[in-house]
Amino acid sequence: MKTVTRNALITGASAGIGAAFARHLAAEGYSLLLVARRIERLHDLAKELTAKHGVRCDVFAVDLNDPAAPSSIMAFAEEKGISIDVLINNAGLSSKTSFADTPWPQLGAEIQLMVTAVTELCHRVLPGMRARGWGRIINLSSLAAFSPPGASLLYTGIKSYVLNISQSLDMELKPQGIHVTALCPGFTHSEFHDTMGTREAANKLPSILWQQADEVAREGWDAVMKGKPVWVPGMLNKLLASTMRPLPMALQYHIGNRLNPFKES
């Protein structure tokens, strides 16, 4: 019997956790659609993965701050005949200035990238996943989603939204064969802190707080395949998350699920 090749769309795939997911899924035999702004990085990664694993890798350069980006990604996939079986919403950033002092276009771009684009891509891939009766979605939240709100941090509120919407989608879609997981990493070695200009402060943190991107990706993939709606990678991060929320996340999830008016009887 011929094995059906599944296709994975990964945003923010040019570096960090996104690139780690690409390498992990290529090793598992998935064809990839890699999305990020830096086309040269995407081409280099695609060549690496095709040479090493023999998988198909398409690349699409787009800035997800652009409201038209999700529709352009899906139009490209349709043009290339790529059905999206796996969605990894990984692209993200964080402002390094106070809310009041940050120009609105910058704040709006942050919301577009990590709220609107994430939600729209989930919505756009679902018709195909539902038709095939199988799908996997990982939305990158953060350990910050478990913490009390921080002054001026739009990032914390955004990641809390990603955490909550992922659970809601999983409740709705799991009976249809679609698993949705909010992946909530803590400090992870990547280019994120260089891009945000916080590398100096990050380097002062104890090494025990840090994980490698490939560890986060591996744990995230295991979690979504096992149907875990929320996953905090790393034992120390799990401990930190458990101390920051009054109720265990699993209990919060099951309470929400029981109250879900759309749940199939």
UniProtKB/TrEMBL annotation:
It comes from the Bacteria. GO terms for molecular function: oxidoreductase activity. Keywords: Oxidoreductase. It is an enzyme of class 1 (oxidoreductase). SUPFAM superfamilies: NAD(P)-binding Rossmann-fold domains. Residues 6-171 form the Ketoreductase domain. Its EC number is 1.-.-.-. The keyword Oxidoreductase applies. Belongs to the short-chain dehydrogenases/reductases (SDR) family. This is SDR family NAD(P)-dependent oxidoreductase. The lineage of its organism: Bacteria, Pseudomonadati, Pseudomonadota, Gammaproteobacteria, Moraxellales.
